[in-house]
Amino acid sequence: MNIPANDDLAHDLSTQVVTALPMPVLIVAGEEEILFANPAAEQFFAMGAQALRRHRMGELVPAGSPLLQSIRQACERQASVGERDLDLSIPRHGARIADVTVTPLPGAANAVLITLHDRGVAHRLDRQLLHRGAVRSLNGMSQVLAHEIKNPLAGIRGAAQLLEENLDDADRELTRLICVESDRISGLIDRMENLGASHALPLAPVNIHEVLDRVCKVAKAGFARHIAIANIYDPSLPPVAGDRDQLIQVFLNLVRNASDAAPAEGGEVAIATAFRPGMRVGATASGARLSLPLEVTVRDNGSGIPSDLLPHIFDPFVTTKLRGAGLGLPLVAKIVADHGGVIECESAPRRTLFRVLLPMAQDEGG
Questions:
Q1: Which of 21, 38, 79, 193 has the fewest CB atoms found within 10 Å of its own CB?
Q2: Which positions ≥6 away from 27 have C-beta within 8 Å?
Q3: 3-state class of 315 per DSSP?
Q4: What are phi and psi for residue 329, nearest 5 degrees?
């Protein structure tokens, strides 16, 4: 039996520890040459370790990023340099926000160890709390609107119908307009009441791919006839803990928005599923924690969401559509929250992506 020397054993253990770390770790030397990347770094940059080693750091972060300056400073000072909430986003990778520490490696000239603490998850959960608070604030408002607007609105519509009986065809067009607009406002208030409603969903095991296939069938038969829809599924995905009809509503809304955003010529929508272990949130009133390993993404190649609207797209009455009411995405966020899940959005020209993370059925939590 061969017993490795202490130095060899320590080296092996160190390599195993760095590889197992949940935070991205890189070793960079010389002119930003990448020598090592652990699996978390591969996931962060959406690129395998071999591909990362073929790139320089300047190709993986925005031009002029403070990270590049931090690398130079750490080498010059031979001391650690840290940056908080650093924006490492580039279009092909989507949003990337991280706390960064750059540490010179002893005994290695111009080589540094870079550790990244992904802030995307924290920001995503903060946004979820804001979205849920905005939805709850509509509960009381919708009750007032239902009483103070719908009742007199019904009277206005009834009066217009009575007037219509004694008018000629030209004037009837005006009374019909009153009825149509009254129905539109009443429908808007109905949607607000649904948004503010609070009730427990009857969750059961749901095959998410059957849900998505149903959504695609409806989309291709109607609003997405001119759009190419690609399905990129992980067939091994376990069932979702959810309500089938509510999940259909979620993804039908997201696919409709993606179809509306895609260009008339060359429009594409991609729907993908994947298993992403490691995401856990405290989502229930009892404080129990849920695992959210099931990921569904809906991506389009439209012009993107304006950067000033992106942080607010799940707020009520915020919309990029000329005729939109701004209640579709808040309702989607509410349904996802009712499932104990998380929804987030990344947007750049020709790449807008909505990501929904959901619990799997029979998850024990804890």
A1: 79
A2: 34, 35, 36, 37, 105, 111, 112, 113, 114
A3: coil
A4: -70, -40
